[in-house]
Design the sequence.
């Protein structure tokens, strides 16, 4: 029989070791995406294979099971943080052990192949190349969902994986509301003349855009001794601990807004990672609580603040210092209109705030059918194209700009997309609560977002994954989740912008 | 009793695991020096602590000892590469186990503290701050040398660590020859008018210097799919395997030559790492054989080729494409004279080819006294300053530009410096052999160094650490080592440059 104290000591050692491997693998991934030469993949895949095998063994063994059981059985006597750590680790362990080892390894191999195939298939716009992999990925995800919980529909199991508590029962009405209320606005906006955004499409030399990124991160109040920026094909954030967070961006010489809003978006993720309490670091309680909560932060900074008129007023003089010739004669109102140009389009990651959720709901509807087994894999592109026509009124010219555009499915992530829309909606409701406490728009117009980050830090960031996600959410929103905040915000913002 | 086959299988697994940890720790270090934010040190030191503890245990255990013994006892029946791997690992293991674990840990802690203290001491030019750490480092190095081989002088043990076969008996006459033959030339050159190097000291914007680095690496024939370049305070090279090698440089806006020759120097190290045979990768036989051999390659490209007139002829048009205004009117002969400007100076890393070895011999003489216990730690700065006056005729104004300038001693590396001078000398003798086989100067003047790399690849690079260093050296030089080649080359080159 293990004593509680021994179990806690062993838990500490286990997590310290896990963090070390997680950190090493995270840096290997980051290095692979930012600095490493192309063929480094040979060695990196070997190293990742060895290290992930070791981390699996670290979790899946009799001693770890006993450590977690001892703590959970003596929960009443232990520090609640220790109990929560044991709880979360137990969930991971259960997920890992329910899936037979051989199937897990087979799936990992499939995923790494599928990712390479998807890149090539996307480049060639050749869905047939990718289809057999997608079919297997769907098959594995259905099986794994069954192992985890055979009593629930497979898609509900996956949704809950990415966003604790999410299910088709909660998401169907959410997306129905968005579709009902936003579609008329989207269609009406599409008929109006587009604002002039041509001044954002001049030549903005990349070495100057790098300077601009530093200035924007300073406006966000990001501590650069704890957060660095790199460059990758697709922007992302990784936080190893609160003293070491990385964001990446992608610079396009002829598009100033693209990297700008990537930096603000990833900056939002980074502030979340940097805001966790010291005492949670190097445990599984550091970092964000759910994917939706993480997106609520990134999309908060990107859209609610970054694409607001007050922030555009602060942003323009900074941008003009670096790009005086290109931004000559531009007013804050012109910048605000340009960065909020809305139009139904093909590519999710380039879509505007108003149409964004429609891209997500298409993927949600498709995933529902995929996981229910109600659609054949070779029928998916036609279905995708039909939905883009029905939901957004656009014609998809090829699969590269259609079903092959996102990396998620090739990476095995089915059920992830709804987090983006949920996060957007959470953020608006948090903003509403925040406006009661602090002068959000004065801070935005001053170009110093620290009061905003302090509010979010208090309500969300500092808690890491210690609080249950629903508790955390209600604490930040001051009331239960209500998607009408999101819908009302979008309708109001875009009605005014487009004089509807 | 373990069978040979089992032992070989276990050796393969051991090395695969070791490489994975080595790779991860290497990337963590690289990331720390290039991309990571300042305070990431908190998490990185934790992770490095955990991973180095695990790698120690991986080596120091009964099974590893049995694996190595089984292979070495059955050497006659095993593949010579397997035997050589076991031999090199046995050497490491013996080194690790001869030092008591507690002393090893204490020393590691000392080194990491000493490095931080040295940085600050150097900045403040405060030797007294660093002296107690240096004293302990000397003490530990003498103890450890005694554990390794009590029958030899401590300094001989250390010299052999960095350069197999090196000893005071071989280095005393080597440095005596250099001092005798080169000192008159150095003093004579110092009297002549300095060539005009002012055109290298204009403003060269860093984003354009980055483009220049890419062009220089292309001239060297470096496969960029296997080698990336980063930026650090002090340039270095790290090779994880032949498909993943990194070099770093440091750009100074007002000094074009500084980064240029760092890139060529580190490029030489990188070509060595990239040239190892496929079959040696992911074993301890990949990578360079000794520090001196590694320096022979880097200094070969940097000085023998990079600072030659033919290569200056190839380099100038490339530089002028990127910096047309700054290099207007500059001729290859002017460039050649400027990059070979020679003058006794204070800082080793900024010294020229002719005076470089004198900086090394000062450190060699000091290390001899330190390891013999013939000098007190607080007497070292005065001794350093006296030697700079005696050997190079320069007055050391402060310890920052004197005894505190190098990072080696604070990193525990006593006995390393001579490798730099030996490597320089090896390179010249290799060049002499190479000139008999290929048209070196036609390749240099064309700005395509691939025939040179092919020759070095065949003689040295592809062998990794499989051949014994002395065998490898003689194979490349075609005869035993003779430092007169080095001396004659320097005397001839600088006599002609300065019309002596």
Sequence:
């Amino acid at each position: 029989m293990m004593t509680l104290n021994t179990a806690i000591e062993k838990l500490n050692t286990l997590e310290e070791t896990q963090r070390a491997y997680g950190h090493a693998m995270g840096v290997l991934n980051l290095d692979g995406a930012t600095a490493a030469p192309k063929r480094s993949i040979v060695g990196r895949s070997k190293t990742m294979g060895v290290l992930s095998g070791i981390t699996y063994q670290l979790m899946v063994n009799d001693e770890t099971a006993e450590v977690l059981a001892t703590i959970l059985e003596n929960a009443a006597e232990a520090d609640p943080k220790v109990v929560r750590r044991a709880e979360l680790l137990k969930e991971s362990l259960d997920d890992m052990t329910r899936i037979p080892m051989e199937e897990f390894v087979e799936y990992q191999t499939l995923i790494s192949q599928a990712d390479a195939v998807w890149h090539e298939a996307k480049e060639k716009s050749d869905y047939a190349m990718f289809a057999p992999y997608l079919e297997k990925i769907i098959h594995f995800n259905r099986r794994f969902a069954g192992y985890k919980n055979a009593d629930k529909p497979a898609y509900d199991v996956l949704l809950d994986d990415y966003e604790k508590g999410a299910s088709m029962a909660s998401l169907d009405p959410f997306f129905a509301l968005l579709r009902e209320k936003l579609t008329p606005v989207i269609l009406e906006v599409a008929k109006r003349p587009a604002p002039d955004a041509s001044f954002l499409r001049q030549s903005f030399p990349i070495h100057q855009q790098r300077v601009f990124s530093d200035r924007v991160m300073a406006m966000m109040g990001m501590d650069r001794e704890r957060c660095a920026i790199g460059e990758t094909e697709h922007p992302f954030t990784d936080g190893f601990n609160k003293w070491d967070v990385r964001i990446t961006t992608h610079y396009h010489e002829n598009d100033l807004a693209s990297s700008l809003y990537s930096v603000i978006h990833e900056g939002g993720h980074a502030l979340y990672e940097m805001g966790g309490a010291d005492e949670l670091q190097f445990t599984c309680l550091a970092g964000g609580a759910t994917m939706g909560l993480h997106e609520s932060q990134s999309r908060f900074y990107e859209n609610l603040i970054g694409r607001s008129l007050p922030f555009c007023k602060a942003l323009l003089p900074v941008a003009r210092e670096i790009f005086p010739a290109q931004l000559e004669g531009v007013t804050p109102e012109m910048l605000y209109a340009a960065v909020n140009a809305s139009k139904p389009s093909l590519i999710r990651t380039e879509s505007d705030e108003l149409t964004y959720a429609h891209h997500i709901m298409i993927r949600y509807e498709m995933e529902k059918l995929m996981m229910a087994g109600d659609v054949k894999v070779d029928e998916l592109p036609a279905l995708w194209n039909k939905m883009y026509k029905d939901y957004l009124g656009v014609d998809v010219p090829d699969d590269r700009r259609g079903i092959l555009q996102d990396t998620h499915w090739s990476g095995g992530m089915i059920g992830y997309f709804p987090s983006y829309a949920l996060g957007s909606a959470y953020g608006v409701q948090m903003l509403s609560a925040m406006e009661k406490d602090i002068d959000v728009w004065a801070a935005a117009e001053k170009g110093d977002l620290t009061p905003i980050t302090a509010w979010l830090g208090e309500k969300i960031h500092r808690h890491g994954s210690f609080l249950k996600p629903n508790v955390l959410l209600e604490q930040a929103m001051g009331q239960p989740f209500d998607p009408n905040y999101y819908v009302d915000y979008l309708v109001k913002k875009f009605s005014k912008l487009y004089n509807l």
